[in-house]
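Standup, Tuesday
Yesterday: got the pipeline producing structure tokens again.
Today: sanity-check two examples.
Blockers: none.

Example 1:
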Amino acid sequence: MRRPRRRPAASPLKYFGSEVRLERERLGWTRKELGKEAHCGYSLVAKIESGERVPGLDFARTCDRVFPHANGRFERLWPLALRLAFPPWFRRYAELEWKATVVRMFHPQLLPGLVQTPDYARAILEGADVVHVDGFPRGFLLAEPDDVAKASEAYDLLTAMACSPDESADLIDSIAKDHYS
């Protein structure tokens, strides 16, 4: 089976990873050896090298320390790799989070709890079009407006503690049949 072609210039994150790999191989180290120095597993090193994971600042500093010719390169590359590792719509939130000393609540444009689905999360992460649901107090959401409005009405019922667990299960079944069948 052929290995996938590496494209280090595809993104700053992939470039960072390719530089780590280049320096690691130049030293003749295994991923496990670098992981031991960076206090992480070899699989995380592999994912950073392939551009699949965002490295931490400590990892970048470790690379600068252990690679003789790094001269601070990894710590300088780290902010660029980190900033462009997130979807464009999320970058502003990530920047705010880095500056924050406390994050008390952090779920903009998300429906909490039982009505989250894998499709909903995928739509959020892919940056689908945002629609406004009239009368929905939580603001803007992704999905079909009618379905979101129905789910919103049902959400308060789902989270209420007015019933026993068996009655709650019956209520959920009833709502699911009424709204989604």
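Example 2:
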Amino acid sequence: MNFLKAKGQKVFCKTCGVEFVQFSRIPNKKYLIRGKEYCSIECCNANLATIHDIYKNCKCVECGKTLHREQAVRGYDFCDIECYRKYLAKGGDMEGLKKPLAWNARLKDDKIKCAECGKIYVYERGKTGIKYCSGECREFSRLRAKNKSLNKRQLKNKAEGKFEIKICACCGKEFKRIKSTCIKYCSNKCRLKMRIKQYAKGYRKRKEREKAQKTKLRFCRHCHGVIKDLERKIYCSDKCKDLASIKRKELKKNAKNIA
């Protein structure tokens, strides 16, 4: 029986078998399965509990370890590729059994090789990753993927010639970055702090410049007296300004008469 029919049609509950109408609109993705396959929350929770018990009982055929939930969902019968090889070496029958992937080592106390630095570490859920031993290695691989020119270089050591230790311009902390990048700060907090300091420096310099301009002596172009009013820049008063304009006009008339 196909339970995933179109929305709004009548279907049978997967747990109790009661006929019900599917939800016409599902606002939350969490309740997507509940509205399509189960008539109520109780039926959904009951079925999920039975599935959880089944996953708990899934064990490795070779060593007897309990499988991880994701391994059990994918249908693997071995916890690791080594157990699978041991089982084959003994001459075990593979009918109805599924072999695991080589990278799928997600159980505790499993040794994994870091894809970035090559360090062998023990997997711990929530602390270490599946491919990388730490967040720094994951960040370095991401930066290398962004800079395509660095990937083309064939170097003996992967990290050689690509990363360098820099000193933060704000706090003085040492951090690693790609050589070609022009990053000066270890984090966004340090970058914002330096921006605030630079703005404060520019503000102080501007104020000092204004004060120097105010204290500097300026002389009138017409009478050659000291300009006391700070707002005036060329003439000391309106009289000097008018006299200078009259003088300019007279000079222009004289120049025309001579020509």
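Quick observation on example 2: Residues 188-215 form the longest helix (28 residues). The radius of gyration is 39 Å.
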